[in-house]
Amino acid sequence: MQSFVERLARLFALLGGATLAFLIILICASVLGRSLNGVLHSDLLQGWVPGLANALLALGIGPINGDFEIVEAGMAFAIFAFLPICQLHGAHASVDIFTARLPEAVTRVLQLITDVVFAAALIVLAWYLALGGLSKYRSGQTTFLLEFPVWWSYAASNLAMWVAAFVGVYVALARVQAFFAGEAGAGH
User: Fold this and answer.
1) What does the longest C-alpha to C-alpha distance in the chain come to?
2) Residue 41 sits in which domain range?
3) What pLDDT is stored for residue 63 in this prediction?
């Protein structure tokens, strides 16, 4: 089971990374297009080489239409796609200034409680994200410029969120099993 959960978490981390890479390229292309569009519309180029400037403008050089809508949807998915690997490896941000000096038995109990509560929170978040997506689906809401259904990004994000919830439950169960088996520092 550990191998399956690890592969699943890595798959979603890779999907999240690929999504982020795509969004970075999209933003760079849009910013470059917007800048080039401004230069091509400048008095200088329109005065010196209006034919070339207008020919390039006719190619559609400019910002990417709806780039912010794509970034918004893609970032939501990427964030949720990284949650499973973070949960599996305990890589969430933590402040251990108070727990660093506690005895190991106390930190094991705190980690157990944290993992169980986190699993429950991931399930609740996945459930409410599903309800939100269903609401967007029923309303037929679309984005302003590209007019793609808003529920699409909810569905992609929700899939990643349910994977995170699954991994969270796996981690919590592994932590509980290790705790009652008396394994120091075990869990995942």
Assistant:
1) 80
2) 2-181
3) 93
